[in-house]
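Why does residue order matter? Because the sequence determines the fold. Keep that principle in mind as you read this record.
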Amino acid sequence: MNFWGYRDRFKLNSETQINDRMAMAEKDYGKVNESIIDKLKEIVGQDYVITDEKSMGDYKRDESFETSVKDRYPDVLVKPSTTEEISKIMKVANQNKIPVTPVGGKTGLVGGIVPVMGGISLSLERKNEKIDVDQENLMVEVDAGVTMTELYDKIKENGLTLPIHPTTGDAEVGGTISTNAAGETSLKHGMMRNYVMGLEVVLPNGEIIKVGGKILKDNTGYSLKNLFIGAEGTLGIITKAILRLYPPSEKPRFIIVPFNSKEDAIYTVPKIVKSGIIPEGIEYLERGPIEDSERDSNVKWPVEKGEATLMIAISGRDEEEILSKAEVIMDVCNENNAIDLFMATEDREIEKLLEIRERIGEGGGEHEGKRYWSADLCVPLSELPEFLKKTEKILEESSLGADYYTFGHAGDGNVHVGGLFPEDMDKEEFHRVYDEWIDETIRLGGSVSGEHGVGLIRKSIMRKQRSKEELRLMESIKRAFDPNLIMNPGKIVPEMKEIEEKFVIL
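Structure:
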């Protein structure tokens, strides 16, 4: 069954369908005409309303692979600088039923900012002035357009820390929250959701609301705040956030542990977690991706041995605590057939490790006649060894002639299984393999997206994981917030088969 086959298998019946308007087509939306453009210019100024394609080239797609999703220019790009301007833009859009696609740092990987219905792309990049660190409450109030690098630098200046580093540095705060981003440290520190205390949001009708605040407990009714986190801009536009901070610990150190077999490496992960020492993160890296990244970055990995390697991040209050934790982890690894151990303590050593790891996540390097593709799947930690063994076997037994190419956050079960696939591969066979990977993920109690979100690319497979009743509830929430379906249409819900077929390549 291919992606679109999920539609028929999981199609909502007449009793659970919201109504026919949940399947709006482009013709059902209003158009951006000269009158609309004039109104937008009145709101933000002529310089920040852009219509020529050359200037909008960076706003038609995110960092998802060009082999996975097509792009599209918006009809107009608008760059407001205040919440009030955003509110006025949304009132114009809602009154005229014009689709609006919020844009952050453009670092997503699921086609989340592709303006599939045209309309307005609304960039938050100028909403970036406020970073107010509250030392007494251990909070920071920050504009949505501030980049994560800017935020981390300001927090560090104040002697505090935001423990998670969920995205690349040029990602923006609003987008990071909207996608509930995670990363290498989520094993110990969780995801973005765990640090969001309050939000300012502009609703699709232009109303401004504030949910949560500088309080640690709030048990009054439904948690609207948590609905916006991870909603990928489909319910409203996050304009400001209050995030929880912590006193700093020592900078993380990294233990690099190679193993002669993939099985030994992956079976060691839950044993580390059960040892009583919870690392900040445990990355699983196979030899192929490491060598590709070494070549592309011209940086040498510190250990040449092993078929697979664990990259383990640990931190503590001081160097003594870090070393004590490292000893426990090293003992566990040695008991499970580790063949070498290397601990990176110097800043330059750590920078090299992180550079190689980051390049691995960027796509497997250049391979003549092949292209890289991976899935963002997550399973319970105890099921990870079986999962990796099964997914590799499925690919090996296929007729694709692809190389298995796997890496990721083994500490939380979110390993990116994938491969180097021939350029001229049989797409029907690819979909069969991917379907089996998805089936295996769901059978083991996992998720079809561990951290990157749904966006446009993963809508069809989400419908395989979620029940009809769950989808009905999601669509009910969408319509309650956005009855005209103007907020980031084509993403998450509702199902829009024609749009998905048009823009999703694989």
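Residues 131-244 form a domain with the Uridine Diphospho-n-acetylenolpyruvylglucosamine Reductase; domain 3 fold (CATH 3.30.465.10).
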